């Protein structure tokens, strides 16, 4: 039994793609993405804030600058970390006269190293209490 169909060899993959036999493939070099510069991201630094940075942050925030404008001043900190520091550690750092007196009494009642307990008693974050106390009561502690 003979067949009328005769297989013909294909000379190249280009011929296979153009003839409809097989899959069309591009050369590997054409599939590689163009070289790109590495993206520099601001990562987690866990770097403590300096007094100068906090002063700059406070001045800019008091002047009404947006968070994005403020964050540009701190190239190694993200906008989120700047906002978090403000609201968690600095925003509550302004104490009224009664809060100031309560804080000083709590410091005397508890050990100066118990900022978490002191903050709970006064109703302020521990870091804010510690910063305020050191700035305003430094010689009285």
UniProtKB/TrEMBL annotation:
Sequence segments annotated as region (Disordered): 25-49
Entry-linked InterPro entries: Homeodomain-like_sf, Myb_dom, MYB_TF, SANT/Myb
GO biological process: mitotic cell cycle; positive regulation of transcription by RNA polymerase II
Pfam families assigned to the protein according to its UniProt record, in alphabetical order: Myb_DNA-binding
An example Gene Ontology CC term for this record: nucleus
GO molecular function: DNA-binding transcription factor activity, RNA polymerase II-specific; RNA polymerase II cis-regulatory region sequence-specific DNA binding
Protein name: Uncharacterized protein
Native organism: Lophium mytilinum
């Amino acid at each position: 039994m003979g067949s009328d169909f005769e297989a013909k060899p294909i000379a190249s993959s280009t011929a296979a793609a153009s003839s409809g036999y097989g899959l069309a493939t591009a050369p590997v070099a054409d599939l590689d993405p163009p070289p790109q510069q590495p993206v520099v991201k601001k990562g987690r630094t866990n770097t403590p804030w300096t007094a100068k940075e906090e002063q700059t942050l406070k001045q800019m925030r008091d002047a009404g600058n947006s968070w994005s404008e403020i964050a540009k001043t701190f190239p190694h900190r993200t906008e989120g970390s700047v906002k978090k520091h403000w609201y968690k550690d600095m925003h509550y750092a302004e104490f009224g006269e009664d809060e100031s007196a309560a804080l000083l009494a709590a410091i005397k009642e508890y050990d100066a190293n118990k900022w978490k307990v002191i903050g709970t008693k006064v109703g302020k974050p521990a870091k804010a209490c510690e910063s305020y106390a050191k700035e305003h009561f430094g010689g009285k502690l």
